[in-house]
Amino acid sequence: MTIPIVYDGISFDEGLRLDLLVEDSVIVELKAVDAVNPVWEAQIISHLKLTNLNLGYLINFKVPLIKNGIRRFKR
How many domains does the chain have? Predict the structure, then answer.
């Protein structure tokens, strides 16, 4: 899903590319990797700020127990 970026009255056509946006209020970034890169955590925080949303999740499916692969982020 692509969300347009508007900053200081300027609209950027590229927009944000989100893996999943739930009910227009929760950003979900999906991964299936051995180790989570800190850049992805910073990316979610930036997306929350740019969209004015308050809640985001980073979900990594490549873990033995799924609850260990879920990180929650609040703005």
Answer: 1
